[in-house]
Design brief:
By secondary structure, this protein is of the alpha/beta class. Helices cover 43% and strands 16% of the residues. It folds into two domains: 133 residues, Alpha-Beta Complex (Aspartate Aminotransferase, domain 1); 255 residues, Type I PLP-dependent aspartate aminotransferase-like (Major domain) (Aspartate Aminotransferase, domain 2, 3-Layer(aba) Sandwich). The chain has 15 helices and 15 strands. The strands form four sheets. It has a seven-stranded mixed beta sheet, sandwiched between helices. The protein has a four-stranded antiparallel beta sheet with strand order 11-12-15-14, with helices on one face. A two-stranded parallel sheet has the order 1-13. α2 packs antiparallel against α11 and α7 runs parallel beside α8. The radius of gyration is 21 Å and the shape is globular.
């Protein structure tokens, strides 16, 4: 991996230290070109006409995203963002009063809200499996819950937004397949920073975004849909004319593939950008990407632990690229602003972003730092020096 070449391929690094890939990473030149070129084409010949002209490239974007997940293109649905994908998957499950949704204490905040909305509207019971002492969901407790309670759905966030924890989604997938339980995985933070194989995971749905570690554009996401879902005629609650055909006055027919989870209107420029980002990651290799980002994150955690007033918050047997820390007497949002003035991008979270996890850790929020493979040790040193100056002040 030629870091100098990758950095030269990333215009946003010319004047910034970007450590916010868990929020929105920096797009490389091929991704930027894919988006801008299609927008320019739309301006010259029209939106519908440009989509027709780009049909082959759009098809290739589906192929590239499918390759990223270890599946075929007919099992990929494009969406506006990961939450749209996640909600479409949830809406396809015909919940009834008394059904059980099993999840974890570290699921993404929007997902947690959606589970509670299901409970409020349909009388669905939500069970959060406890964590293991070392952090992350207790797999024994998860297996016992699935075995004894037979949930309608198990839903797990692969890597939460609020820490570097990597959940063992493969083992949970084995549990779900053994007992024929539907399984939904939120891969928003894992896609692009580590290998993902939906067949190995054994999930029925896998939702993801383009803008984070995949380094694609904002406003784009995608959803993997399993054969089992399609064969059982599951479909989103509100399909439209892209996802279904109106074949009689009172009759419609869902699309035979994952397209049934799509809607008609797309920013095709962003789909093309997503495909370019997937192709970029595939060509670099997800194993080298994983190894580099985890090495950088481990270095950063070690440096942070030596800073006065700093407390590294990440816990778990396996940790990814997201690094979270609290600083005694310093508001995370204020730290982000002070770092940004120094040309360093990070992000902050409050208690409302992860109520259970942050309450367990006894903090009101965290500074979130998320290096990617294009970052260098010098970037980390610049961050640490800036934080040291801020804390001293």
């Amino acid at each position: 991996m030629d870091i100098a070449e990758l950095r030269s391929d990333t215009p946003g690094l010319r004047n910034r230290v970007h450590l916010n890939s868990a929020g929105a990473s920096l797009m490389p030149t091929p991704v930027i070109d894919a988006v801008v070129d299609h927008i320019r084409l739309e301006s010259e010949i029209g939106g519908y006409e440009a989509a027709d002209d780009a049909s082959d490239a759009i098809g290739q974007a589906y192929e590239d995203v499918a390759a990223l997940l270890g599946t075929s293109s007919d099992r990929i649905a494009m969406s506006e963002h990961a939450t749209a994908s996640f909600v479409a998957a949830l809406s396809a499950i015909p919940f009834e009063r008394g059904d059980l949704v099993v999840t974890t204490r570290n699921d993404y905040v929007s997902n947690q809200i959606q589970y509670l909305s299901l409970a409020h509207r349909f009388g669905v019971e939500v069970v959060r499996v406890p964590d293991a002492p070392e952090g992350g969901v207790d797999l024994n407790a998860m297996e016992e819950t699935i075995h004894r309670r037979r949930p309608r759905l198990v839903a797990v966030t692969h890597i939460p937004t609020n820490s570097g924890l990597v959940q063992d989604v493969d083992s949970i997938g084995t549990m779900c397949r053994t007992r024929d339980v539907l399984y939904l995985v939120d891969g928003c933070q894992s896609v692009g920073q580590m290998p993902v194989d939906v067949e190995r995971i054994g999930c029925d749905f896998f939702s993801a975004t383009s803008r984070k570690y995949l380094r694609g554009p904002r406003g784009a996401g995608f959803l993997y849909v399993s054969d089992r879902v399609l064969d059982s005629d599951m479909e989103p609650l509100f399909p439209d004319l892209r996802g279904a055909d109106w074949i009689g006055d009172d009759l419609y027919q869902p699309a035979p593939d994952a397209r049934r989870f799509e809607t008609w209107e797309f920013a095709w420029a962003l789909v093309l950008g997503t495909g370019a980002a997937a192709r970029y990651a595939n060509e670099l290799g997800l194993v080298p990407i994983r190894d580099r980002v985890r090495s950088l994150a481990a270095t950063l955690r070690g440096s942070l632990s030596e800073l006065p007033k700093a407390r590294v918050l990440d816990r778990g047997d396996e940790l990814g690229a997201t690094v979270t820390a609290s600083f005694l007497g310093h508001d995370p949002a204020s730290l982000v602003k002070q770092l940004r003035v120094r040309g360093i991008n990070t992000s902050s979270q409050s208690r409302l972003d992860a109520v259970i996890d942050y309450d367990d850790k006894g903090v009101d929020g965290a500074l979130r730092m998320s290096p990617h493979y294009f970052n260098t040790e010098s970037d980390l040193e610049a961050l640490i020096e800036a934080l040291r100056d801020i804390v001293r002040a």
